[in-house]
Amino acid sequence: MPKKVPETLSAEELIDLRAPPKSEIPVINQIKLPEADGFIFGFPARFGLMASQFKAFLDSTQFLRKAQMLAP
Description:
The protein is mostly helical and 72 residues long. InterPro entries: Flavoprotein-like_sf (IPR029039).
């Protein structure tokens, strides 16, 4: 089932930027990652880099990687 990472901008900033309405895709939580059988990441590259929302999400999983909770 597809999931999306949390938005890093506030609701007010999204309104100011005229962002499109939110989709019905559920937001993933870092605590749920160890329960997954696998991961497939997909995102558009901006200037050769991943989206800042996804980078912030990966950075927030540091405690899982240190404890090797994502290792097979």
